Amino acid sequence: MNTAAAQPKRKAPHTGGGALRRHAYETLKGMILSAAFNPGERLSEIRLSEMIGVSRTPLREALMLLEAEGLVIGKSNSGYSVVHFDPRNIRDLLIAREGLDGYSAEIACRMATEDDFEQLKAVMADIEELARRDQAEPVEITRKLELGLKVHEVVAAATKNSVIQDMTRRLYEQLQAALWLEVLWLTSSWDEAIAQHRAIVDAVLARDVPRAVEAAREHVRDSLRNMARIEDIYEGRRHLFKQPAPPSGRSDLPTES
Length: 257
What we know:
The protein is mostly helical. The two termini are 34 Å apart. It has two domains: 3-82, Winged helix-like DNA-binding domain superfamily/Winged helix DNA-binding domain (Arc Repressor Mutant, subunit A), CATH 1.10.10; 87-240, Up-down Bundle (Four Helix Bundle (Hemerythrin (Met), subunit A)). Helices cover 70% and strands 4% of the residues. The protein has helices at residues 17-33, 45-52, 56-68, 87-111, 114-133, 138-158, 162-185, 187-205, 209-240, and strands at residues 42-43, 72-75, 79-82. α4 (87-111) packs antiparallel against α9.
């Protein structure tokens, strides 16, 4: 969707401290996830303030949150822009994730406590409840991603290994932009992800190491297949909007400092 053709009307200013930041964050995230901006498009703070109806301070705070999630890129001299999609970097990250997630599932089968099991059951219950609602609003899309990541977070925590937990967090932070696109652009991927998460959780609950490892690795392999489809969609959008390709040899995805 072209930005010029999809601009919302100027909104009256909102009031209320942290509520302002939350309003700006949720509204802007919804616009990005709904493809209201072009890949790589620079975000004008003045125009966004008028569109969303907040002052520059909560808007900047919202942009900082979105940068942490990998949806926008901040540069000192040019402000913020919508993230570029770098397929090569994402494929490398997913290959690393396949090995890490498989190993995490193996260790979790041996080390998980009853409390870990209860957390896994609770996350799956939330995922399945969300699936029954079957809504496509940005807040629901956000919740899908949060819950999908929560499964892997609980599995990593169940290993009782702080290094594995830290590596998982860092890897998933770098993959967030790609995960957003997977949930948003491939509508069937959510149904597939539910079944895959259920397979991982059931195997860990049964302490079935071979089944847990294979379920975890297959889940990531499915994401790798999805990335090929997303790359085609992204390239179509980039050519449609005449956006330049990301500079060769670098990634615009945020990296951990």
